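FYI - complex with adenosine-5'-triphosphate, inputs then prediction.
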Amino acid sequence: MSTAAPAVSVDGLVMRYGDKVAVDGLSLEVARGTITAVLGPNGAGKTTTLETCEGYRAPQQGTVRVLGLDPQRDRAELLPRIGVMLQAGGAWSGVRAEEMLEHMASLHARPLDTRMLGERLGLGDCGRTPYRRLSGGQQQRLGLAIALVGRPELVFVDEPTAGMDPQARRTTWELLEEVRADGVTVVLTTHHMDEAEHLADRIHIIDRGRVIATGTPGELTREGRSATIRLVVNRPFPDGAPESLRAELGPGTEVRQLDEVSMLVHGPADSMTLGRVSRWCEEHDVLPETLNLGQRNLEDVFLDLTGRELTP
Ligand SMILES: Nc1ncnc2c1ncn2[C@@H]1O[C@H](COP(=O)(O)OP(=O)(O)OP(=O)(O)O)[C@@H](O)[C@H]1O
C-alpha cells in the first residue's frame, strides 16, 4: 500500500437536490497512479460525486480534497492539473472536432500533439465534422481527448464508453491503461461491471449515495456468501425442473434454465448446496456432466449486498 497522499479523498460527502438526497455521507480515497472505478446503478450518485471533486459543485456537507487541494477554494491551482471528461456534451454544437481539440490544447502550457491524440482515439476521419454531427461514440472519444490533451496528473472520466461499439470500447480501455502507465491517476464512473472488472485497480461500489463495498476486483469477487453453480446434464430435464430444484435448495436460491440440458443456480457458496444439486439429479434420473462452482462477478457482489440487480 502506498504511503503517498491520496490523489482524491472524499469524506462524509452529502449532496442534495431540493429534498432529494443524491449523495448520502459518501467517503472514498483514490491512490495515485491507479485506475479507480466508481461503480453503481443509474442514479447512485456517481456523477454528483465526480462533479464535486471537479469543483463544479460545492460540498453541502463533508470534505473533498483533490491532489491535496480544495476543488472550490483552490480551483485556479487545480484546474491545469486535472482533466475532465463530462458525461454529455463538453463542446458547443457547431464546432469541428479538431478545432475543439486545438482550442483546448491552446489553454494548456504543455499540451499533447492533437493530431497524434486524435489518431490514437480514432478521430482522424472526423476532424472536420461539426460536433453535433459526430456519433455518440465519437463525441465520447473527443471528450476523452479533451480530458487528456493538457497532460493532466489526474483525469475524471464519467461513463467513458457509453454509446461506443465494442471495438471503440477496447481502444478506450487500452488508452486509459496507457494513461495509467504514464503515471496518471484515472477516476472513472461506470455502471458496466465488466469495465470496472477489466480496468480498475480498485473499485468503490456505490448505491443510493453511499459506498457499500471497496476493494480490488479480486477481493470483491472472492469474498461473499453466494456463488453461481453451472449444471449441465446428460439428457433433457423433466418438466418443471427449475421449480423443483429451487424447492430442493430452499430460500435464497435462484434457478434459471438456460436450455434443455443446462441450468444456472445462484445460491450459497457451500458444499451443502452442491450436494443438494447432485442429489436432485439422482432423484430425477439425470446425470451431471458439469457441476461446477463459478467465480462470482461484480453483479453477484451487488446482488448480495443490495438484493437488487446492478443492471436491471
Ligand atoms: N440537477 C439535478 N436536479 C435534481 N436531481 C438530480 C440532478 N442531478 C442528479 N439528480 C438526482 O440525483 C441522484 C444522483 O444522480 P447522479 O447523476 O449523481 O447519479 P449517477 O450515479 O451518476 O447516475 P447515472 O449513471 O444515471 O449518471 C439521482 O436520483 C438523480 O435523479
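The first strand starts at residue 8 and ends at 17. DSSP finds eleven helices and 13 strands in the chain.
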